[in-house]
Amino acid sequence: MFDALHLDLEPQSLDVWASGTATDKRALLDNLLDAYVDIRAALDAGGYPALPIYADIPFTWDKIPGSIDWASTADRDAWFNDISAVLDGLTIMTFSKDSFPELETATEYERGPFGTGPGTVHVAIQPKVGS
């Protein structure tokens, strides 16, 4: 038996993300939410309703203005609220950040609404050591 399912579904790795508009990126995030919902439903139907689901996301998705065409802060907040209904936690990928103040700023939003709810938030770093 597994303890949890950890998803690393990365729409930002698709060609359409690189060449698409902010509206295209917003649509991809809706598709990602649909995938989370479908995975949760499949686990529930398969007899695993208590199996937690965690997912990786970049720290940039919450930014307004940013690369995502959020209609408003309420639109962004609703999307994060919707994923928190099916995910038990997030890992925020912050690989470009080098200091605690940068990490703190980059993940402030996710550590707020998601981190104070039933879900957990982990901050993923990429340590730079050696030469």
Descriptive notes:
The protein has helices at residues 15-19, 22-45, 73-86, 100-106, 108-111; strands spanning 5-7, 53-58, 89-93, 120-124. β2, α3 and β3 (89-93) form a beta-alpha-beta unit. The chain is α/β, with parallel strands linked by helices and 131 residues long. The protein has a four-stranded parallel sheet with strand order 1-2-3-4, with no helix packed on it. α2 runs parallel beside α3 (73-86). 17% of the residues are buried. The mean pLDDT is 89.
| Main beta-sheet annotation | 4 strands, parallel
Number of strands: 4
| Class based on secondary structure composition and strand pairing | alpha/beta
Strand content: 5-15%
Q: Would you identify the regions where 5 or more consecutive residues have pLDDT less than 50?
A: none
Mean pLDDT: 89
Task: Annotate the secondary structure layout.
Layout: E1 5-7, H1 15-19, H2 22-45, E2 53-58, H3 73-86, E3 89-93, H4 100-106, H5 108-111, E4 120-124
Parallel strand pairs: 1-2, 2-3, 3-4
Helix pairs in contact: 2-3
Short description:
By secondary structure, this protein is of the alpha/beta class.
